[in-house]
Design a protein that fits this description.
TIM Barrel; binds manganese (II) ion; binds phosphoenolpyruvate
Length: about 400
């Protein structure tokens, strides 16, 4: 039988360590009391929805405006999300606003715009529900239901979405601890719906520079304590668009399974959350930069293919040229360091050069590049490399000479 003992040292969490029944498994599992269904398991949950899986290797991008405002706005937003490689279109139609005088959402009319735009662009869609009535109105129309931060502990609502057969994005409450957030997820699971996606969206702190403070440690902690997928919403955390790109990348590096990012065709005119909404161009550019971050943490994100206009093709060539040159500079630096470890008469090693060219010719054949390209470019690269090694040697010798003739007087 599993032995459960509490750990007073783990600050702030009502956690216990569960000694695994199987002693071969040396790692003790940390569990939060009462996370009977949401608590950590041997296998992480993967939520599958049509052709989209959340919680597997692929990073899922969700995008769209804060609030649905018009049919045109949603068509443009869907186009942006699709171009970026996003899979899910968002848009609030029932908006729980801090002020009763702020735009409260278009309701059912907005829902039609969201659903239609998603369908026309082959995207899934998600919208927030705030009560039984709104849930009833959207449940058969959208693919995913969102419970917003302000309703994270609306337990009756949690039980209601626990009875439906659709994935739920559960935002972390503005001042909720991770334990409270996971226990809110437990409510949904306990009511019968196992498809919960946790969403970290920033918590309230004393720091006024950002709307909230994005708690990236929560991604790791939630994944340690629970088997549920965790996504990150940098938009509501930062409250300002200039931070969204770096926070999104940091979220992926921290282990997030997806991103939920606000974008608007014209943020300056947005009915809500304009300052944190990315323009379509910014959203597409950011998506184009996520792939490398994802692969650096053994995940995948495939951005949409840019349209083949002359401008976009030239922009792609420019950015590839920049990468080629930066990599050449890196190579040169390593070559210099290597040279510093060799004697001057050992700088040129013909056999090594031959070996490199042979390997790259084989690679070029595989990549369907002309072998001649390698044979012409590499001798130049070797030549400049050797020159820089020689220069570096001569500079060091000169320095040595000078220090011999003019030794620094030890005072
Ligand atoms: C939203 O996603 O539109 C929203 C209101 O977010 P949150 O509940 O995190 O404030
Ligand atoms: Mn918003």
């Amino acid at each position: 039988m599993a032995i459960i003992r509490s750990i007073p040292g783990l600050v702030g969490l009502n956690v216990q360590r569960k000694k695994p029944a199987n002693d071969n498994n040396l790692r003790e599992a940390v569990i939060v009391k009462d996370l009977i269904l949401a608590g950590r398991r041997a296998e992480r949950s993967v939520i599958g929805l049509k052709d989209v899986t959340i919680g597997a290797k692929e990073i899922i991008l969700i995008g769209g405006p804060c609030a649905v405002e018009s049919s045109l706005q949603m068509r443009r937003s869907a186009e942006t999300v699709k171009k970026a490689g996003g899979k899910i279109l968002r848009g609030g139609v029932f908006k729980p606003r801090t002020s009763p005088y702020s735009f409260q959402g278009l309701g059912l009319e907005g829902l039609n715009y969201l659903v239609q735009a998603a369908k026309d662009h082959g995207l899934l869609c998600v919208t927030e529900v705030i009560d039984a009535q709104s849930l009833d109105q959207v449940v058969n129309r959208v693919d995913i239901i969102q419970i917003g931060a302000r309703n994270m502990q609306n337990f009756e609502l949690l039980k209601m979405v626990g009875k439906i057969n659709k994935p739920i994005i559960l935002k972390r409450g503005l001042s909720a601890t991770i334990e409270e957030w996971l226990l809110a997820a437990e409510y949904v699971l306990a009511a019968g719906n196992p498809q919960v996606i946790l969403c970290e969206r920033g918590i309230r702190t004393y720091e006024p520079s950002t709307r909230n403070t994005l708690d990236l440690s929560a991604v790791g902690v939630a994944k340690e304590l629970s088997h549920l997928p965790v996504i990150v919403d940098p938009s509501h955390a930062a409250g300002r668009r200039d931070l969204i790109s770096s926070l999104s990348k940091a979220a992926i590096a921290a282990g997030a399974d997806g991103l939920l990012i606000e974008t608007h065709p014209n943020p300056a005119e947005a009915a809500s959350d304009g300052p944190q909404s990315l323009t379509p161009e910014q959203f597409i550019q950011l998506a184009g930069e996520l792939g490398v971050v994802a692969s650096s943490v053994q995940r995948i994100f495939t951005a949409g293919r840019p349209e083949d206009t002359i401008e976009s093709l030239r922009a792609q060539i420019d950015s590839i040229d920049q990468i080629i040159l930066e990599k050449l500079a890196d190579r040169m630096q390593i070559v210099r360091k290597l040279g510093d470890q060799k004697r001057l008469d050992q700088v040129k090693v013909a056999s090594r050069q031959k070996e490199i060219v042979q390997r790259l010719v084989n690679l070029a054949n595989e990549l369907q590049l002309p072998a001649e390209l390698v044979k012409r470019i590499y001798p130049l690269i070797f030549e400049f490399g050797i020159q820089s090694q020689i220069k570096s040697h001569l500079a060091q010798e000169k320095e040595l000479e000078l220090s011999t003739y003019y030794p620094t007087s030890g005072k």
